[in-house]
Amino acid sequence: MDISNSKSLFANAQNFIPGGVNSPVRAFKAVGGDPLFIKKADGAYLYDEDDNRYIELINSWGPMILGHNHPVIKEAVIKAMESGTSFGAPTAKEIEIAALITKMVPSVEKVRMVNSGTEATMSAVRLARGFTGRDKFIKFEGNYHGHGDSFLIAAGSGAITMGAPNSPGVTIGTAKDTLLALYNDLESVEQLIEANKAEVAAIILEPVPGNMGLVLPEEGFLQGLRKLCDEEGIVLIFDEVMTGFRLAKGGAQEVFGVTPDLTTMGKIIGGGMPVGAYGGKKEIMDFVSPVGPVYQAGTLSGNPIAMAAGLAMLQYLDQEPGVYNQLESIGNKLVGGVKQSLSKLGLNYSMNHLGSMYSLFFSEEKIIDFETAKTSDTALFGKYFQAMLKRGVYLPPSQFESLFLSTSLKEEHIEYIIQANEESLKEIL
Ligand code: PMP
Questions:
Q1: What is the ipTM of this complex?
Q2: Rounded to an integer, what distance in angstroms lies between the CA atom of residue 145 and that of residue 371?
Q3: Domain parsing of the chain, residue ranges
Q4: At what positions is N6-(pyridoxal phosphate)lysine found (predicted)?
Q5: CB of 123 closer than 6 A to ligand 1?
Q6: Where does 71-319 sit in CATH, by number?
Q7: What is the CATH code of the structural domain delimited by 4-69+321-428?
């Protein structure tokens, strides 16, 4: 496969951009080789600067749930562009998207739009602190909530693959208010609450973590957190930046029937434009400025182009019958095929799967948390990644990420991926 244009672009990019990329995991450090520079994307495919074509299993890290360049989103963006790119003033579309979000995610009674998942989680924790008058919060090892200072402590995603979960530049003063619990371990949460009685403002978690590879909550874990929060006056925040509008209309909270106080959202709600949001109970959200004392603002927040893309996406997901069944069926077929190949090859690698998200771990352990995720053979994953790429399948370039499927995957794509997976495993083992 010729990737000479990507190679020379990457060499040049490094002169002007740190590491040649605007987000670390894109540099392929965890899997070796040069990153591909992408020229365009359409449906289930990405095209690089050397005109190689790849089947997409990242989908912009989640947002492109309908595949790339979907006509509904494209038309909404083009139409919005005709009326200007930013006003810095309220628009009717903002009410429409906020109302739709509250309908699709019933725990969200009011919502504030921001520009990224990072902004959403930073703002949600500030709000929980302002609301409760407490300083500390609990997060879980291997969960990623963006790059806000107080979250860069045992964080997942690129923060694991870059080998720097505790980033320089995060002060001890900041870090001391972030309490670390173990995912799927209620006792670790109880101990922290006990040791910091009446000081914990919030518990924030990915209800279904995708940033240490995909991990599922064990029976009773989310319910247990809800109960603890109720007993202790702690704000429960579900970070549904990945899972929101993907696992179901109402996200992981709908799938598991557990209602958080606040929810953070991103990715899909922007239809591929830079958008995040946080929302939840009215009484908490009304603590946000200008109605309440907790300050949070944004020059480009509620941007008209981003709102048009996001609204078109959410309307489609809300109204198109069978879209979640379709995602489910694509996930089941693909994961079923990969599992069949594993057993045919006599491999006991662990797989976690829910709907249109899954991870194949190069480990034989059941992956339930950060500790078990770290038992994966990341060097072998790197070889697997390259073997798949050579066959035209674009996977997340790290063991510690989930795959994201889109409705644009048809039968022929699924069959091709299953076959490529089997050949790749044979090649690397
Ligand atoms: N929360 C979760 C669960 C995420 O997966 C991410 C990004 N992958 C973020 C927050 C941060 O979002 P962003 O990259 O848009 O800042």
A1: 0.99
A2: 18
A3: 4-69+321-428, 71-319
A4: 267
A5: no
A6: 3.40.640.10
A7: 3.90.1150.10
